[in-house]
């Protein structure tokens, strides 16, 4: 008979057993979501209480997941997950009607203005205070009142109801609309309309403010940042629905 002190140690559970594909979990603390299984390139940041679905087996100490509120894929560090006590979860999207979204826009704008008032800098992949990227800020502003929109600027452009806008012609823009910038082929930047051609956005160092600032669509604004983004203006869109959690391209 083997004594308890001599009993064999049970084998450690593998990552696949701990995090089976298809399982759904809730974060208890914020985590970075990475673009790849290796390297430090951020895809996004997942705040506490966000939920994720496991997509497959872990690779190089990172787990492929989709954040369920916006369907956004990224890689989470297994060590960070183990340290915070992730809990099993359920998820059912709350689909906001258009009138409720319109009523919430003052809160959306107030969130973005408060973020601008804090010391901040541009962070690629940033989606949590105080450092954001452009679409991380707009997503966080809507999410602050429970309205989920897609994560990336190009996804947000496709998600919105189009609104006609041109330089010096922005009468159709309303507060809370999203303004899109980029090349003729792809949207690469987004800002939040404050009305009268003014917009709030988080821009990088190369052509922007390395953080959140206010700029204008009218040609009278001759500062370098406004001039750069006016030249890259693609269009605008209105958030008239909330995301259902499906994974977008």
Automatic annotation (TrEMBL):
Belongs to the peptidase C40 family. It comes from the Bacteria. Residues 102-240 form the NlpC/P60 domain. It comes from Aphanocapsa feldmannii 277cV. InterPro entries: NLP_P60_dom, Papain-like_cys_pep_sf, Peptidase_C40, SH3_16. Keywords: Hydrolase, Protease, Thiol protease. Coiled coil: none annotated. It holds the Pfam family SH3_16. One of its GO terms (molecular function) is cysteine-type peptidase activity. One of its GO terms (biological process) is proteolysis. This is NlpC/P60 family protein.
């Amino acid at each position: 008979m083997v004594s308890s002190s001599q009993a064999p140690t049970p084998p450690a559970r593998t990552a696949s057993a701990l995090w089976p594909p298809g399982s759904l979990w809730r974060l208890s603390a914020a985590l970075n979501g990475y673009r790849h299984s290796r390297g430090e390139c951020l895809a996004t940041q997942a705040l506490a209480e966000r939920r994720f679905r496991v997509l497959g087996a872990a690779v190089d100490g990172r787990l492929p997941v989709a954040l369920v509120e916006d369907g956004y894929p990224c890689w989470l560090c297994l060590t960070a997950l183990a340290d915070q006590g992730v809990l099993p979860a359920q998820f059912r999207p709350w689909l906001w009607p258009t009138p409720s979204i319109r009523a919430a826009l003052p809160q959306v704008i107030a969130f973005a203005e408060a973020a601008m008032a804090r010391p901040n800098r541009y962070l690629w992949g940033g989606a949590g205070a105080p450092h954001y990227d452009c679409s991380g800020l707009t997503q966080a502003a809507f999410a602050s009142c429970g309205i989920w929109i897609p994560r990336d600027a190009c996804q947000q452009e496709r998600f919105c109801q189009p609104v006609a806008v041109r330089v010096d012609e922005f009468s159709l823009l309303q507060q809370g609309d999203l303004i899109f910038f980029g090349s003729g082929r792809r949207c690469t930047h987004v800002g939040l309309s404050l009305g009268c051609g003014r917009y709030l956005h988080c821009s990088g160092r190369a052509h922007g403010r390395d953080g959140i600032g206010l700029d204008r669509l009218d040609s009278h604004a001759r500062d370098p940042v406004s001039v750069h983004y006016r030249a890259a203006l693609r269009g605008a869109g209105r958030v008239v629905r909330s995301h259902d959690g499906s994974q977008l391209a």
